[in-house]
Write a structure and sequence with these properties.
Keywords: Hydrolase. The protein is α+β, with helices and mostly antiparallel strands. The chain has three helices and ten strands, in the order βββββββαβββαα. Strands 4, 5, 6, 7, 8, 9 and 10 form a seven-stranded mixed β-sheet that branches. A three-stranded antiparallel β-sheet has the order 1-2-3, with no helix packed on it. The radius of gyration is 18 Å and the shape is elongated.
Length: about 180
């Protein structure tokens, strides 16, 4: 596959839409649309800068899950604490800020930060870190009036029940499964 044209087609407040024209394996042109959270200069800029973090937080033997309304799917789902990196912010500072903003909790220890991975490869170049942290403190809510979030710690038994009946984001579902069956 060879990119032969790269063009911004819409510049939204949070998402930028691009159209990429490729030459496929048969030598024919194929157009493909993507969105990015960043202003991309050219095709070589696609997927080059991490956008944010997803946080797998535990406190003792419990997993933190957010039960939150997500406008993109028009429903309440189970999700991980997550957010976008701010300009010149370190990943560690982003983890602490997002965890506190969405839950009131603090980071006791960062256990592991995985390298950035693609969040939605079919439609976006967005990459995020996945961080595993031990949290401390008490849940006290979040700071944004634009989000509807209920944060809570769940036992393995509770998480197993949720996995059978409730909608999740894909990353939260995978983290919940691994937690419930003792792999986190």
């Amino acid at each position: 596959m060879e990119a032969i044209k790269f063009e911004k087609v819409r510049d939204g407040k949070y998402l930028k839409n691009y159209e990429i024209t490729y030459k496929n394996k048969a030598g024919r042109e194929k157009k493909y649309e993507i969105v990015s959270r960043r202003d991309l200069k050219d095709i070589n800029d696609v997927g080059q800068a991490p956008s944010g973090v997803s946080i797998v937080a535990t406190k003792g033997d419990r997993l933190l899950l957010l039960h939150e309304f997500r406008m993109g799917v028009n429903r309440t789902i189970y999700n991980l604490c997550a957010g976008m990196l701010e300009k010149d912010e370190t990943i560690e500072a982003c983890i602490a800020r997002e965890l506190f903003e969405e839950t009131g909790l603090k980071v006791k220890a960062i256990k592991k930060i995985l390298p950035p991975s693609y969040a939605a490869v079919a439609i976006s170049d967005t990459t995020t870190y996945i961080a595993f942290v031990e949290a401390e403190g008490e849940i006290s809510g979040h700071t944004s009036e634009n989000e509807e979030i209920e944060a809570r710690f769940y036992t393995k038994k509770e998480v197993k029940a949720l996995l059978d009946t409730e909608p999740f984001s894909s990353r939260a579902q995978m983290a919940a499964y691994y937690f419930a069956f003792g792999m986190i």
